[in-house]
Amino acid sequence: MGDAGGSSGIFAECAIAFVPSTALTPKLIGELSSIAEENGATICEPRRDGSISIETVTHIISNTIDFPQYTESQAVMIPVTTAQWIMVSISRRKQAQVRPFSPDPRMIFSDVVVTCADLPESDKESIAGATMALGGQESKDATRLTTHICALSMDHPKVQASKNRGWKGKVVLPHWFDDCFKLGKRIDEGPYLLPDAEILKKSPEDDLAIPANSNLDGATSATPTYLALPTEGDTARPPVTVFQDRRVMLSSDLNISSRLSKAIREIIVNGGGRLIEQVEDSDMFICQYRDGPQYVQAAQSCKDVGNLAWLFYLIVHNEWTSPLRRLLHYPVPKNGIEGFQGLRITVSNYGGEARIYLENLIRASGAEFTKTMKADNTHLITARNSSEKCKAAPEWGISVINHLWIEESYAKCEMKPMTIKKYNHFPPRTNLGEIIGQTFFDESKLRELYYPGGEETMSPRAKRKRKILEAAEDNAYQHGPAEGVVIGRENDDRDMDDLQQDAEVKSTTKKTTTKTLGTVATPIRTRPVRSGKENETPSMVSTGGRSAKAKARDLLQTIAPDIALYEKEKKRHSKGANTPWGGKRAADQVDKTPKAKSGTTPEVDDESADDKRPTKKARPSLPDVETRIILTGFGRWVGDKHKEDQDRRKLRDLGVQIVQEGHPCDYLAAPHVVRTVKFLCALARGPTVISSTFIDKILETGKVPDVEDFTLQDKETEKRYGFSLDKSVARAKSNRGKLLLGIPIYCTEKIRNGPDSYKAIAEANNAIFKLYRARSGTTIRPTTAEEDGNAPPEPVYLLSSNTPEEKVLWERFQDMARKGNMEPRVVAPDWLLDVAMAQQVRFNKKFLVENFYKA
């Protein structure tokens, strides 16, 4: 997309990649891509495996840090910003600074724009500087974009003038900023809002509701025992695509029931993943304890190591998150944290999931949790410094601290001194339960204590990952509230306001852009970079102060041969059932699949590997399923079921399995690009598309050739429908079946060929699909633009052919949509086929029914 070197526009030298997620849907990505391209950007498509080509991008747009390549972007200091960065840059007609738009939750003021009123100058500077260091911005006056005015009263002219203009922001006491800085967390500003600030009117002892907290969702226990499973009659669980192309190993120390183990295995396999028996072949290692040779090997090899709670979280949310993001998503120390043994800890003023979380965290640390407080307790962890327990504790010699002490002790794998001020800070009208669960692990501390060394046995892939982790750590803030955050490179062509902001930031926090990357980095960019943009000047190089980008480039160039060798070996296939194992076969090993009864089609998927089968007539040497293929448009078996059964058995004997529609697959095979339901539904999962001559070749020779030689080429069909198959597959891998997430698609009941096929295609891409009969139950709730936040109307689609019965529905549908503040689009079903084939939410007016069905 886009020309390779746009010469004009505010994004003229930007190569931008997008990360799809629930918070940044493919539909929104399509809209933002068009806007960015119109302003000179180059949009970097995902690679064939769906990942970002880090070495070619200048910016990554993501509304979350929960994506696998986030650490790699930190290592080479590629800025990761929210989608808002694009829109703010457009509105300002220049690139905005990246710091205020970091999706990292540790940048606690990322959406704050503050201006100060009646404060001493030193206080103004401190608040502005520290706010900007943590992702906020300062404005000299209260503008439409200002979110907070920091003042001591409502009497200041700046406050009065803003209110008279209808300004919608918040007037907050400086105490709010002070308490946030002290804790290193952002607390609710409600008690600090003028004119009736609660902290000035109520005492700390007055009642205060216990807050809800979404940070602990699915993270209150390291050993969950329950996973919600569909019951009989329920709609089947959609594929958990977060496991697509991932190889998962379950440790024997999990100690789970056979029923739960079977359910987990089925979910992983149905989601396109593989169950692996050897650590070295896995991508993800699931265990209970930070203990044992398998854990050490997995951690040293930089596998994604998590516990059952993390696995369940991935299953329930179907979105990637690091197991280091939440404390009870990582395996627990078998003997606790040094220093916690013998401690007796109780809690106060925490409720619900926060209390359960603290109980489990205390026990995981090695201390004893007590429900009540007695004289032999050693510590009281409290969310407020006001309760009967808090009053009695000092008299009994019991230490009183907040939950940050145990969280940070657990995250750093050592007991932190209780004298650190933030552990003893209790804002007067805040229950600290609202900020629980926001602490990240420190991977370097884990490695130092639980899996040091291992370099001599690391694979090329593990070595690369280790260098990435170390480089990311070097680039991060080492201390303070933003510890662990990497901002990325900032632009140098800024106006005076920007430079003044940076000067204030430098006064409050250490810059990271001059940190050392050791010997690491990305290959040389192919795009021109503005002079001075990334601090790469001859004077810096000559004095030895090499830029982070240059050092990052050196690292990946150093390890490039190892990476190339690994990638080549990973793709190598074994040529037959009795030949030595190739790299892909070794990497994709799964439980052996038993042979089906003689005379039946062997449609056995990997998830049934543990099922007991009759031994009668079973062949003993059936190989593992190495290659799963969905086949469509294949003419060889038409009208000859017996030949199909024979051929399927021959393929299965060679480790190749033809699977049915809806099952996980590695490849989608067809003689050419076809717009069948099977082809489009399978494409949504992102399998490599190959020519069905691959099947013919196997059956003719009795050997499995290199599948890379059979990638499907059909330029004529691509040109006819205006898409690139390679790009479609890459986008599908990146979208993970969520191309149409949240998009409502209605369909007439009398549409040609029936609605079922379109329903299958829409739901394979996560759309909301409904039949439209112009009756109650299929209507959009009427709203106004004001109710929808004055956002532009979202499109809503009705698939329809042009029969008289359907035409009478068009006007009703359009009226329904407009009343719901949505833009109605009555389209031919070819629109859906076009979108599913391109794996891109796009629209052309030629698909509107009035244009498509013209005589």
UniProtKB/TrEMBL annotation:
Q: Where is the composition biased (Basic and acidic residues)?
A: 585-594
Q: Which residue ranges are recorded for the region named Disordered?
A: 526-551, 566-624
Residues forming the BRCT domain are: 6-103, 104-194, 238-320, 340-412
Task: Please provide one cellular component term from the Gene Ontology annotations of this protein.
Answer: nucleus
Concerning Pfam families, the annotation shows: PTCB-BRCT, RTT107_BRCT_5
Q: Where would one find the signal peptide in this protein?
A: none
Gene Ontology terms describing biological process: DNA double-strand break attachment to nuclear envelope; double-strand break repair
Any idea what this protein is called?
Answer: BRCT domain-containing protein
Protein's organism: Cylindrodendrum hubeiense
